[in-house]
Design a protein that fits this description.
The structure is a single chain. By secondary structure, the chain is α/β, with parallel strands linked by helices. It folds into five domains: 175 residues, P-loop containing nucleotide triphosphate hydrolases (Rossmann fold), CATH 3.40.50; 67 residues, Helicase, Ruva Protein, domain 3; 119 residues, Zinc Finger, Delta Prime, domain 3 (Up-down Bundle); 138 residues, no CATH class; 78 residues, Alpha-Beta Plaits, CATH 3.30.70. It contains 27 helices and 14 strands. A five-stranded parallel beta sheet has the order 2-3-4-1-5, covered by helices on one side. It has a three-stranded mixed beta sheet with strand order 6-8-7. Helix 8 packs across helix 9 and helix 12 packs across helix 17. About 20% of the residues have low confidence.
Amino acid sequence: MGYQVLARKYRPQRFADVAGQDHVTRTLMNALSQNRIAHGYIFSGHRGIGKTTIARIVAQALNCRTEIGTEARPTPEPCGVCDSCIEIRQGNAVDVIEIDAATNRGIDEIRELREAARYAPSRDRYKIYILDEAHQITEAAFNALLKTLEEPPAHVIFMMATTQPEDIPQTIRSRCQHFSFHAVKFDDILTQLRMIAGQEQVEAEDAALALLAEAGDGSMRDALSIMDQAIASAPMEAGRPVLSTEQIRELMGAVPNAIFERLLEAVAAGQSAKLMEELNLLVNAGHSPSSLARQMVRYLRNTLMAKLGGEQTELLQISGDERARAARTAMLFTEEELTRNLQIVLRTFDDLNYRQEQRFHLELGLLKLIHAQRLLPIEELLSGVASGVRSPAAQSTPRATAGPSRPTATAAPTPPAAPSISPFGASSWGSGPSIKQSAAVNPVAEMERPPITSVAITAPAGAGGPVRESSPFPAASSPAMGYASTATLTEGALAKAPEVAAPGSGAPSMEAVRHAIGSALVEAGHTSAAQLLGSGTWSLDGSSLRIEVPGMGKKMLALTVNAAAEKIIRQELQRMGAPSRFMVIPGGGTAQAAPVSSGPPMAGSIQEAALANPMVQKAREIFNAEVRSVIDLRQK
């Protein structure tokens, strides 16, 4: 007899030899021992996992001439030595007919099968029909088989093997017992490969066999086919083939997972140049972009599973070394980032199937992984917004009642607002609403009820002690009155506005530049950018303006001071004759309160309305006090 490939040579001949299908073999053996034999079976599942093999074993067990319970056959397993078992194993049995349904799929072939099924078996107990790839049979042919399958002769048994059971009509499936086969586990394939390597006198590294088992992807036949090819290409030592990991990788055209680990390390570090250099080496070595994308998808999937279940999870069907590598990579990313990366690479892999310049599209897909790392999570953005809704000083200020009240003296001045890293925090330009507050404001109700404002007034030392007055008063009507704001003013705010030099008449003061830019940003609706820049340190660095914002990350800074805000700043600088070049950079430490402007409050603001109120002016005159903060309490 000529050479047989490993998949045929080591094909299981007993139920006990089948790997990874215990739920099927146990049920069938119990049915044989209890003589509960169905007239139709459907075996479905992944390719190369034993569907047709088990159908043949069942045929041997049904037609075996040795009785169950005898010394030669103590279990329902076929004896394997009688004429029927030998003929079925060799494919020569007259009463066991295997039909390739992919070829014999028409109604004429099924009619012939139905006519032949009427006759009794020639020698054995049952006439068994094994239909491989049964989903290929046409609908008309299935309809022709339907009546026979519903009421078959007592001596006929149908077994259908398929990889797509959903393509078999429901009328057929409801008349058969359906067994769903599982993909063979990695450890089961690895055990089988070790056994076969010992039988074939092959020297193989454990890592090499693990690579073969992983390449099988749950299919025992695929793993054995690759092993057959690897043995044929392996070098000989002392008359025995030797399988090494590098040789198998070269044979399969696979890339070591250590390279994908380095690629994802570059992604996590944001090193675009290094990522492209690694990819260039792989492509120049002859690896196709489609193959690289497919392998990276598999590696990212394993990394995500390691992130979800840990290194020893059952979700990982890989060797111990690869488990450790996947766990190391998983530590570089969050679960959300890994999910997003896997989605990007999957989309890239799909694009490569119909693109001509595959390399360019793969490079673009990998660069997207780095760009995605720079995205700000929505949770972080929302938490930043929430932190700037109301400062602790505003929360601690007593709410004013609807009726008039007398000034109430307190023993301590208004506590300063706590530092906030949010661009939506309070500052000297804060006249706009926070996102959370503006969502709760009813404009109609705000117009109908009188506005209530709380003013904190502090007397200087020696003037009778600090006094806070919480006094409701009607504020002036202005567009800004619908907003809750927190601002800080000093006595210097009553002075005239800082002079702004006309273009060409000299450089304006830094305070004038700050005030003009802040007012322009607020008027244009960029309140968050105004508040953020107001908390920064302004300085001239040569011929450019330098604004250093403490306690602020690059991502949040870029989101707040966007292109539209930069355009407004640049226009305002040109209008004032100041250097048009400027830079906004993050600084160290935590964000501080904005320095108090030396100019008057902006027109139409709540500060202007508060300072114009007669009660506030009277309190300042009596106590010789200064206005430190103005807090709008109309939200209540």
